[in-house]
Fatty acid hydroxylase superfamily protein (Candidatus Chryseopegocella kryptomonas), 211 residues
Amino acid sequence: MSEYIGKSTMIPDYLYPRKGSAVIFKNRFLESLTKTHPIAPLVVYLPIVTYFVYHSAYKLDLKTYNIALLFIAGAFSWTLAEYLLHRFVFHFEPKSSIGYKIQFMIHGVHHQYPQDPKRLVMPPAVSLIIAILFWYVFKFSLGIYAFAFFPGFVVGYIIYDMTHYAIHHFKPPKNKLRYLWRHHLQHHYKDPNKAFGVSSPLWDYVFGTTI
């Protein structure tokens, strides 16, 4: 990781990396909701994925190839959602003291303390709200096909969370996946306004935000 760490003029002070962990809420219960075990996304979302695939196949009688195509499309669409959320929601530019506090709670805390192991995957209390919103968007726009599209989208999210945890928690592998480590750690230690893709750098190339 040393190749990525160094004072960068591109990093504002409120996003500059530090060691340790932050306290967001003085209330113990609220504070506990901001910390998540890395296995939580698997425990919470794999049963949901299983239910939707089962419902698509045995309740809606969708063809296997249709389910597979919709599932893959859902997983691919997550990569775009991931990029847009990370760039425009997690990294909105605060204009006031309240804005800085909100940005810190949403994502700034992760940039200040990128090695905090309990804040490397999204808390279920937050991700479930986002998942429900996406579900209704897909249900409204795709009808019954949303039942096969949505689980793929969720699997894309799971891959994102697991990839993010691995990048911050483990040394980069000695294969082509090493690029994901380099890409994301440059986002933290070189320029937080670029390299927004985590599970895939595709949309950074499309929108010109690679480093």
User: Anything to note?
Assistant: Residues 23-171 form one domain. The chain has a mean pLDDT of 90. The radius of gyration is 18 Å.
